[in-house]
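re: ur question from yesterday

yeah so i grabbed the chain u mentioned. its 211 aa long if i counted rite. heres the sequnce exactly as i have it in my notes:
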Amino acid sequence: MKTILLKAEARKETGSVATKEIRKAGMVPCVLYGIDEPLHFSVYEADFKNLVYTPNVYKVRIELDGKHHEAILQDMQFHPVSENILHADFLGVKEDKPVVMEIPVRLTGNSPGVRNGGKLVKKLNRLRCKGLIANFPDFIEISIDALKIGMSVRVSEIEVSNLTLLNAKENAIVSVRMARAVVLEEEEEEVEGEAEAVEGDSAEGGETAAE
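ran it thru and got these structure tokens back, copy pasting raw so excuse formatting
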């Protein structure tokens, strides 16, 4: 898994007044948990661009007071109107301690169901995994080469080396549904078939009456 470096500044005060001043300066109040004692620091909001506004997931190296802390982004709060980042929580990681992360799903291959007019529906963009940080991939590849119309790939069918998937096993990750246009076309064909049958019955009835 790739790593992003964040240069942090220590926070001497953690009250609401100090927090407002930090945000006015274009920085985000942050806390690092999972170590001996929580560390309070701030990072420029612009530095979160490559970490937050991306479908990818990264490990984070926090540079603070000349030291480096390996971590993952645990939680983030946004302003309900401006969508500015208000606060970020990080979890310190160790090589021998399992962590939980959501890893992006990448689809590969070509679905025969889609080639036959079906619609590909991706239901899970990420899978929740547990394991050692060194074993987390950048993404989880899922082949759709065998997916026909009406078929799905479920969590129970996926295995990721040295990781445990925490999503419900019966959940579908990706499915191929019959496209609406195909359904409408079949319905129209059925209606036409019924109409022809009715016309045939009427014609037979007319001949009988004439006799």
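noticed a couple things. The mean pLDDT is 87. also The two ends are 85 Å apart (CA to CA).
anyway ttyl
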